[in-house]
Structure to design on (298 residues):
């Protein structure tokens, strides 16, 4: 008897319990579904907005790049354009520095190639025919030889540019000038680099890997932590350069064709201070001019 009542009442109790559970669960399930759905919608609309924002920036960059190329091309084609006119060159310089701030890496590279191809940033042109790019933002720009780009940048002049993490790979950089440039973390890979001038450049953490570096000038250059992998420089001028912690070994530095004067070696010690350098840097000039002044007045 006890058994049968228990067994007969159990299913109905179960049924009513599951009804209660179900009726309680349904709003809960709906609620959870609504929350999940809303969250998903939110993340979709955030992603959409992000994409819209990126597209707007890209569009703006393209418009700015096109306008720049169009305007400068027009200026160059104008019969009144005079390569030796400093005002016209400075106008191009200001326009370039300004537009570079807004462009992406590839457009920045193309602006430089544009100026180079129009012979406006060439070391082999007289100085009064060169566009000054002091402070131009070339951060992270990559110049890499490929099927679509030859990377022949022989004689290019990129003085005083801001080029941290700039990359040159398999390029012809013979006789290039990077004087005064800020090139922390720059990479020069498998490139031709004969006669390159890096005077006063900041090349801390730079990597030189497998380049043909012959008669390169590093006067007053910062080469702290710089790495010279593969081929070592030949006949480099390290006058006043800072080589602290660079990976050049005593053997690399022992070549008699290198020039050292007031150089800080990788180990932190200084090369013999040269007298000529002292005369140039150490106020001796003032004494000389004072003497000539005295002579003059006498
Ligand atoms: C170009 O400008 C330079 C410097 O202003 C001037 O000496 C020269 O005569 C100009 N050349 C022409 C063709 O106008
Ligand atoms: C580079 O400059 C040298 C002179 O400094 C010149 O002889 C040579 O033709 C130039 N090369 C290019 C590709 O501009
Ligand atoms: C530091 O390095 C230079 C150049 O390799 C070497 O001539 C000099 O003896 C070294 N100094 C010390 C204290 O090791």
């Amino acid at each position: 008897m006890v058994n049968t009542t228990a067994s007969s009442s159990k299913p109905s109790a179960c049924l009513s319990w599951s009804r209660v559970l179900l009726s309680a669960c349904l709003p809960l399930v709906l609620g959870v579904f609504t929350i999940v759905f809303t969250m998903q919608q939110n993340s979709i609309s955030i992603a959409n907005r992000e994409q819209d924002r990126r597209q707007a920036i890209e569009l703006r960059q393209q418009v700015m790049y096109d306008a720049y190329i169009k305007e400068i091309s027009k200026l160059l084609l104008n019969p009144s354009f005079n390569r030796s006119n400093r005002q016209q060159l400075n106008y191009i310089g200001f326009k370039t520095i300004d537009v570079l701030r807004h462009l992406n890496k590839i457009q920045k590279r193309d602006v430089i190639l544009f100026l180079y191809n129009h012979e406006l940033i060439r070391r082999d042109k007289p100085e009064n025919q060169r566009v000054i790019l002091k402070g131009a933002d070339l951060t992270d720009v990559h110049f890499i030889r490929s099927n679509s780009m030859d990377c022949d940048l022989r004689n290019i002049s990129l003085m005083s540019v801001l080029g941290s993490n700039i990359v040159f790979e398999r390029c012809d950089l013979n006789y290039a000038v990077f004087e005064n440039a800020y090139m922390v973390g720059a990479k020069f890979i498998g490139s031709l680099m004969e006669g390159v001038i890096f005077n006063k450049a900041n090349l801390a953490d730079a990597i030189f890997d497998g380049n043909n570096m012959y008669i390169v000038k590093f006067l007053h250059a910062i080469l702290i932590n710089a790495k010279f992998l593969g081929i070592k420089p030949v006949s480099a001028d390290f006058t006043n350069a800072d080589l602290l912690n660079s990976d050049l070994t005593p053997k690399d530095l022992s070549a008699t064709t290198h020039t050292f004067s007031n150089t800080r070696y990788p180990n932190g010690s200084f090369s013999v201070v040269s007298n000529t350098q002292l005369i140039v840097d150490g106020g001796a000039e003032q004494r000389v001019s004072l003497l000539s002044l005295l002579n003059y007045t006498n």
Notes: Residues 277-298 have pLDDT under 50 and may be disordered. The beta strands are 142-144, 167-169, 187-189, 207-209, 227-229. The CA atoms of residues 6 and 124 lie 106 Å apart. The longest strand covers residues 142-144.
